[in-house]
Amino acid sequence: VGSTTSQMLSGLAAAAGLGVGYVVGLREGAITQPLVLNGPVRDCLDALGKAVDAEWSIQDGRIQVLAPGALAPGEGVVLSPSSGLVGSPTKTKKGVELTCLLQPLLGPGKRFLLQSRDVSGTFKCQQVTHKGDSGWTDEFYTAIVAVPS
């Protein structure tokens, strides 16, 4: 008897000492061919993600899995010069890169509304880096790489 996608994900998370976070848009019956997971957990997660056409990441000590087009739950954030956008967003081949004042509600898979002079629209976070230092400086920023949503 085979394992369900949820069972495989839970087993991999446990092997890595992690919990399971958001799993959005993933169908249990998505794996139609035999799948053997063996080796480092990251390689197994890559294989599982490929088999079910989903992306995985680790957020706050938990494995997050999102199907294509799926968004992590959470309230939308508006980023504009008046709400913490720092400088101008940079357009990339796939989307935008930008910096804002620390925005802890944003993380990979979450959506935000960008309103700037150069770029406006709804975007999905691909990569989010929070930076802060209360020691010598008062710099608290969030760097974001995003694609249109």
Which strand order do you get reading across the main beta sheet?
A: 4-7-8-9-6-5
Q: Which residues form runs of ≥5 with pLDDT under 50?
A: none
Which value, in Å, is the CA radius of gyration? 18 Å
SSE order, one letter for each helix or strand = HEHEEEEEEEE
Number of strands: 9
Distance between the termini: 39 Å
Strand % is 35-45%
Mean pLDDT: 88
Number of helices: 2
Largest sheet: 6 strands, mixed
- The dominant shape is elongated
Helix share bin: 10-25%
What would you call the structural class? alpha+beta
Features:
15% helix; elongated; 3-stranded mixed β-sheet; alpha+beta; 6-stranded mixed β-sheet; 2 helices
Any overview of this molecule?
With 149 residues, the protein is α+β, with helices and mostly antiparallel strands. Helices cover 15% and strands 40% of the residues. The protein has two helices and nine strands, in the order H-E-H-E-E-E-E-E-E-E-E. A hairpin with a 2-residue loop joins strand 2 and strand 3. Helix 1 packs antiparallel against helix 2. The longest helix is centred in the N-terminal third of the chain and has 12 residues.
Describe, in short, the structure shown.
This protein is of the alpha+beta class and 149 residues long. The protein has helices at 5-15, 41-52, and strands at residues 19-24, 55-59, 62-66, 77-79, 85-91, 96-101, 111-115, 120-132, 140-148. The strands form 2 sheets. It has a 6-stranded mixed β-sheet, with no helix packed on it.
